[in-house]
Design a protein that fits this description.
202 residues, disordered C terminus, Tetracycline Repressor, domain 2
Length: 202
Amino acid sequence: MRVSRAQAEKNRENVITVASQLFRKHGFDGVGLKDLMKGAGLTQGAFYKQFASKEDLAAQASERAFEEAAKRWADSVAENPEDPLGAMLGLYLSTGHRDEITEGCPIVALGADASRQSNEVKAPFEAGIRGLIESLGQLIGESGDQRVTGNAMAVLSTMTGAVILSRAVNDKKLSEQILQAAAESIRPSATAGDDPDSGSRA
Protein backbone atom coordinates (compact mmCIF):
# COMPACT_ATOMS: atom_id res chain seq x y z
CA MET A 1 0.00 0.00 0.00
CA ARG A 2 1.40 3.37 -1.04
CA VAL A 3 2.06 5.78 1.82
CA SER A 4 1.13 9.44 1.35
CA ARG A 5 3.84 12.09 1.50
CA ALA A 6 2.36 13.48 4.70
CA GLN A 7 2.28 10.05 6.34
CA ALA A 8 5.82 9.31 5.17
CA GLU A 9 7.05 12.53 6.80
CA LYS A 10 5.14 11.69 9.97
CA ASN A 11 6.74 8.24 10.01
CA ARG A 12 10.19 9.78 9.50
CA GLU A 13 9.74 12.18 12.40
CA ASN A 14 8.58 9.31 14.60
CA VAL A 15 11.67 7.26 13.70
CA ILE A 16 13.93 10.19 14.66
CA THR A 17 12.16 10.64 18.00
CA VAL A 18 12.22 6.93 18.83
CA ALA A 19 15.87 6.66 17.75
CA SER A 20 16.84 9.59 19.99
CA GLN A 21 15.37 7.69 22.95
CA LEU A 22 16.78 4.27 22.08
CA PHE A 23 20.26 5.65 21.34
CA ARG A 24 20.29 7.38 24.74
CA LYS A 25 19.27 4.13 26.41
CA HIS A 26 21.50 1.68 24.53
CA GLY A 27 24.19 3.75 22.80
CA PHE A 28 24.70 4.28 19.08
CA ASP A 29 26.09 0.79 18.59
CA GLY A 30 23.81 -0.88 21.12
CA VAL A 31 20.69 -0.94 18.98
CA GLY A 32 20.29 -2.15 15.40
CA LEU A 33 18.15 -0.86 12.56
CA LYS A 34 15.61 -3.65 12.99
CA ASP A 35 14.94 -2.69 16.61
CA LEU A 36 14.95 1.04 15.80
CA MET A 37 12.31 0.60 13.13
CA LYS A 38 10.33 -1.84 15.24
CA GLY A 39 10.26 0.73 18.04
CA ALA A 40 8.75 3.20 15.58
CA GLY A 41 6.20 0.65 14.41
CA LEU A 42 7.74 0.28 10.95
CA THR A 43 9.60 -2.39 9.01
CA GLN A 44 13.35 -2.30 8.43
CA GLY A 45 12.70 -2.05 4.69
CA ALA A 46 11.28 1.45 5.15
CA PHE A 47 14.51 2.74 6.66
CA TYR A 48 16.46 3.46 3.47
CA LYS A 49 13.52 5.34 1.99
CA GLN A 50 13.89 7.85 4.82
CA PHE A 51 17.60 7.94 5.74
CA ALA A 52 20.89 7.65 3.89
CA SER A 53 22.44 5.49 6.61
CA LYS A 54 22.30 4.66 10.30
CA GLU A 55 24.91 7.40 10.75
CA ASP A 56 22.52 9.87 9.14
CA LEU A 57 19.79 8.81 11.56
CA ALA A 58 22.19 9.02 14.52
CA ALA A 59 23.04 12.61 13.62
CA GLN A 60 19.39 13.62 13.23
CA ALA A 61 18.37 11.79 16.41
CA SER A 62 21.13 13.57 18.33
CA GLU A 63 19.96 16.93 17.02
CA ARG A 64 16.42 16.07 18.13
CA ALA A 65 17.65 15.11 21.61
CA PHE A 66 19.42 18.46 22.00
CA GLU A 67 16.33 20.32 20.80
CA GLU A 68 14.27 18.57 23.46
CA ALA A 69 16.87 19.32 26.14
CA ALA A 70 16.96 23.00 25.18
CA LYS A 71 13.17 23.20 25.36
CA ARG A 72 13.11 21.64 28.83
CA TRP A 73 15.72 24.18 30.00
CA ALA A 74 13.76 27.07 28.50
CA ASP A 75 10.47 25.90 30.00
CA SER A 76 12.04 25.49 33.44
CA VAL A 77 13.58 28.96 33.32
CA ALA A 78 10.33 30.54 32.09
CA GLU A 79 8.43 28.99 34.99
CA ASN A 80 10.93 30.34 37.53
CA PRO A 81 11.99 33.84 36.39
CA GLU A 82 12.97 34.86 39.94
CA ASP A 83 15.74 32.25 40.08
CA PRO A 84 16.39 30.89 36.57
CA LEU A 85 19.77 29.35 37.41
CA GLY A 86 18.33 27.60 40.46
CA ALA A 87 15.44 26.31 38.36
CA MET A 88 17.78 24.89 35.75
CA LEU A 89 20.00 23.27 38.38
CA GLY A 90 16.93 21.81 40.08
CA LEU A 91 15.85 20.28 36.79
CA TYR A 92 19.22 18.96 35.66
CA LEU A 93 20.72 17.82 38.98
CA SER A 94 17.62 15.93 40.05
CA THR A 95 17.02 12.25 40.76
CA GLY A 96 14.33 12.39 38.09
CA HIS A 97 16.87 13.35 35.44
CA ARG A 98 19.28 10.76 36.80
CA ASP A 99 16.68 8.02 36.42
CA GLU A 100 15.12 9.08 33.10
CA ILE A 101 17.79 8.03 30.65
CA THR A 102 15.73 7.89 27.45
CA GLU A 103 14.49 11.47 27.88
CA GLY A 104 17.62 12.85 29.56
CA CYS A 105 20.52 14.99 28.41
CA PRO A 106 22.25 13.52 25.34
CA ILE A 107 25.66 14.67 26.60
CA VAL A 108 25.33 12.46 29.67
CA ALA A 109 23.88 9.50 27.82
CA LEU A 110 25.95 9.63 24.65
CA GLY A 111 28.88 12.02 25.12
CA ALA A 112 31.55 9.33 25.47
CA ASP A 113 29.93 7.34 22.67
CA ALA A 114 29.86 10.39 20.38
CA SER A 115 33.61 10.83 20.78
CA ARG A 116 34.07 7.58 18.86
CA GLN A 117 31.67 8.51 16.07
CA SER A 118 32.16 10.27 12.73
CA ASN A 119 32.23 14.02 12.22
CA GLU A 120 28.64 13.78 10.95
CA VAL A 121 27.46 12.50 14.32
CA LYS A 122 29.76 14.79 16.32
CA ALA A 123 28.40 17.88 14.54
CA PRO A 124 25.04 18.02 16.38
CA PHE A 125 26.86 17.42 19.67
CA GLU A 126 29.14 20.38 19.03
CA ALA A 127 26.17 22.57 18.07
CA GLY A 128 24.14 21.36 21.03
CA ILE A 129 26.95 21.87 23.52
CA ARG A 130 27.58 25.37 22.19
CA GLY A 131 23.89 26.12 22.55
CA LEU A 132 23.75 24.91 26.15
CA ILE A 133 26.88 26.90 27.03
CA GLU A 134 25.27 30.01 25.55
CA SER A 135 22.05 29.38 27.50
CA LEU A 136 24.01 28.97 30.72
CA GLY A 137 25.99 32.10 29.96
CA GLN A 138 22.76 34.07 29.70
CA LEU A 139 21.74 32.83 33.14
CA ILE A 140 25.13 33.62 34.68
CA GLY A 141 25.88 37.04 33.18
CA GLU A 142 26.11 39.10 30.03
CA SER A 143 26.21 36.98 26.88
CA GLY A 144 29.52 37.12 25.04
CA ASP A 145 31.62 38.00 28.09
CA GLN A 146 34.70 35.75 28.02
CA ARG A 147 34.71 35.20 31.78
CA VAL A 148 31.03 34.33 31.75
CA THR A 149 31.53 31.90 28.86
CA GLY A 150 34.34 30.19 30.76
CA ASN A 151 32.14 29.89 33.84
CA ALA A 152 29.34 28.45 31.71
CA MET A 153 31.69 25.81 30.30
CA ALA A 154 32.78 24.87 33.82
CA VAL A 155 29.17 24.71 35.02
CA LEU A 156 28.10 22.48 32.13
CA SER A 157 31.09 20.20 32.75
CA THR A 158 30.22 19.94 36.45
CA MET A 159 26.56 19.24 35.73
CA THR A 160 27.12 16.55 33.14
CA GLY A 161 29.89 14.91 35.15
CA ALA A 162 27.71 14.82 38.27
CA VAL A 163 24.83 13.10 36.49
CA ILE A 164 27.19 10.57 34.91
CA LEU A 165 28.66 9.74 38.34
CA SER A 166 25.22 9.62 39.96
CA ARG A 167 24.10 7.04 37.41
CA ALA A 168 27.24 4.95 37.79
CA VAL A 169 26.84 4.01 41.47
CA ASN A 170 24.48 1.58 43.19
CA ASP A 171 24.30 3.52 46.45
CA LYS A 172 21.32 5.88 46.08
CA LYS A 173 22.42 8.04 49.00
CA LEU A 174 25.85 8.54 47.45
CA SER A 175 24.19 9.24 44.11
CA GLU A 176 22.03 11.97 45.63
CA GLN A 177 24.99 13.43 47.50
CA ILE A 178 26.91 13.76 44.24
CA LEU A 179 24.05 15.69 42.66
CA GLN A 180 23.66 17.92 45.70
CA ALA A 181 27.39 18.60 45.94
CA ALA A 182 27.48 19.64 42.29
CA ALA A 183 24.56 22.03 42.75
CA GLU A 184 26.16 23.58 45.83
CA SER A 185 29.50 24.03 44.09
CA ILE A 186 28.01 25.65 41.01
CA ARG A 187 26.25 28.53 42.76
CA PRO A 188 29.37 30.36 44.01
CA SER A 189 31.46 29.56 40.92
CA ALA A 190 28.75 30.72 38.54
CA THR A 191 28.34 34.03 40.37
CA ALA A 192 32.04 34.68 41.03
CA GLY A 193 32.77 38.36 40.77
CA ASP A 194 29.19 39.35 41.54
CA ASP A 195 27.55 40.06 44.88
CA PRO A 196 29.19 37.62 47.33
CA ASP A 197 25.83 36.88 48.92
CA SER A 198 24.35 35.79 45.58
CA GLY A 199 26.08 32.41 45.77
CA SER A 200 23.79 31.08 48.48
CA ARG A 201 21.32 28.34 47.55
CA ALA A 202 17.79 29.30 46.68
